[in-house]
Amino acid sequence: MADPGLFEIMFSLRSMRKLKTDPIPQDVLDKLLAAGTQAPSGQNTQPWAFIAIQDPATKKFVQEKYDAGIKERFGKFSMDKIGDDTTEKRTTKAALHLSERMHEVPLLLMVCGKRDWPFQTLPENRTGKAPPNYGAVYPCVQNILLACRALGLGASLTTTHRLHEAEIAERLGVPDDYGLVVLIPIGYPKGKFGPISRTPPAELTHYDSWGTQTPPG
Amino acid sequence: MADPGLFEIMFSLRSMRKLKTDPIPQDVLDKLLAAGTQAPSGQNTQPWAFIAIQDPATKKFVQEKYDAGIKERFGKFSMDKIGDDTTEKRTTKAALHLSERMHEVPLLLMVCGKRDWPFQTLPENRTGKAPPNYGAVYPCVQNILLACRALGLGASLTTTHRLHEAEIAERLGVPDDYGLVVLIPIGYPKGKFGPISRTPPAELTHYDSWGTQTPPG
What we know:
The structure is a homodimer of 217-residue chains.
Chain A: H1 6-10, H2 26-37, E1 48-53, H3 56-74, H4 87-101, E2 107-114, H5 134-150, E3 154-155, H6 165-172, E4 178-187, E5 205-207
Antiparallel strand pairs in A: 1-2, 2-4, 3-4
């Protein structure tokens, strides 16, 4: 398979939440994980680990906890009451679709983050139980999402499992020194990749000091 | 310029800390920022903003704070006492090189993260002043690093400015609702891109439950 262009990939990387049930071949999964582990991390600590969840009963357990989290976070939506007239509503509808059918997705990839990372001097880690190294894990997650798109797989970045993280960690047998940072449901997409809606970067960019939004010179 | 392959980019994306002083053309910077803003974020909130620092006096201010942070974090190294015999030592030496010459780098790109993000139900945000949305900002950062590599620019992901974040935020005039999450020094590299050293993904991958490291079936 040809190696598709980076910018072409980035500019068509829609979150794909409606996925087919066809399984993911092992060699494809291996390629996703190789891409993830190429990400940079502080002092090359690589503080991540992966759980590839494909067993039906385990997927169902995770789906139920995830869906409970979605209902807690967003309230009890009635699918019938959500229209199709805005991007936000379409996204919400797709998110609910995924939440209720996550156990039918062929691969739930849990990306774990190690807690005992070296930079305990950072303000957010000075007290209490150290959180997982979110910063270090997300570049790895983004590489996996880009690799999915390159290989024709649909995926989305989800975090709502964290509302029931302790129960899921117990079920999966994850040791205490790892947090369950991101859950990526992966499958061949039913829809098509395409352009995505974003704020123009110029509106978010400042030059030398905040508020100067015209490039110098 | 041809759009280079995604996997080729990922597998040769070394952190580049020795950089030339040649300026970055505005159209190249625009392309980096466009890549960054393609990243996904929860409910498409895009909670990031950029400060492109190119003014010599502002770069010098940031360099001094950054270098002070490096010295606090790693102690006072003597460059002479660090050998060249291990990758770790080479990396440390390059990090010190960058820290002491950061004001000579043509572009210091500060990636800011908005604090008032929607998911205050996550455990790490339940108390105190909300941290910036690290999770949301890092996929954007990774896209920028990949775009740098694709365009022949050297870059590295740094966070040590956070040890003096308040002073830098004041100098740059950043409002309180944004944190200074990642600082990316960017320039044309003196060295060459190439393969990077990583743990084989199979050693970090579990199937269905932690400890099962053989794929099923």
